[in-house]
Amino acid sequence: MNPITMQLVADKYIKMALEEDINNEDVSTNAVMPEYKKGEVQLICKEDGIIAGLQIFERVFTLLDPDTKVAFKVKDGDEVKKGELLAVVTGDIRVLLSGERTALNYLQRLSGIATYTHNVAKLLEGTKTKLLDTRKTTPGMRVFEKYAVRVGGGCNHRYNLSDGVLLKDNHIDAAGGVKQAVEAARAYAPFVRKIEVETENLDMVKEAVEAGADIIMLDNMTPEVMAEAVRIINGRAETECSGNITKENINTITSLGVDYVSSGALTHSAPILDISLKHLKVLV
User: Fold this and answer.
1) pTM higher than 0.85, yes or no?
2) Which of 62, 116, 151, 181 is 20 to 30 Å apart from 263, CA to CA?
3) Running along the chain, 284 residues long, what does each successive block of 10 average in pLDDT?
4) Active-site residue 198, yes or no?
5) For residue 181, which of 203, 161, 165, 193 has the smallest C-alpha distance?
């Protein structure tokens, strides 16, 4: 995550997370550490995975105190192992204690997403199909979670509703049909925008092709129906497979030749990666 993104976008969400955890004071820390003392604590990985979110982890502490120093032993995207020392954090012990949970919440969550994405992406190796995320993200966490998908080897679908045209079932119902929805989008959206249409059956696929959709999403179709849909489209539009795609079932669609497969599970169902701050000590 570049410094501009951090300052303009990420900082406000990190501050909100800190304010959620410290809305008045950290009673526990102030009780045992009423005055400044310098200390250090180790960041330890407790299971194998892909690390992601180290800058966010560091930023939690530097927002509390710019003098906090984090010496990383790894970088985002690295494979890490159980028991590995990932970093040493040095600074005001009050900051180390008060920022611990928020910093770990980000790092564990993003590393879990990167790890899950990495495992799914490996299943697509050797095919032309690219792995995409969705907007099924945790409120207030989208910028971080989509970053973690990229670290894990996936690609980002649209970031938000301003980022692209995706005509889903309710848009189509509101417009009166696939053709009407595509025509309305073509007339309204900037010409540089691709128009994607969500389809649920082969009749809708045919309508989307005839209407000139740029991307056709094959939503919740069986592999057999998807294969027929790809044959009907025949390269006249890009294809995206979606609907309850997980690492357990993605192998059923790898041979279909779709351009993209999108999976909400990358962000809404990835377990965290277990990481801890341990062995805090006072520095003389």
Assistant:
1) yes
2) 181
3) 77 96 95 97 98 97 98 98 98 98 98 97 93 96 96 96 94 97 94 94 98 96 93 97 82 86 95 98 91
4) yes
5) 165
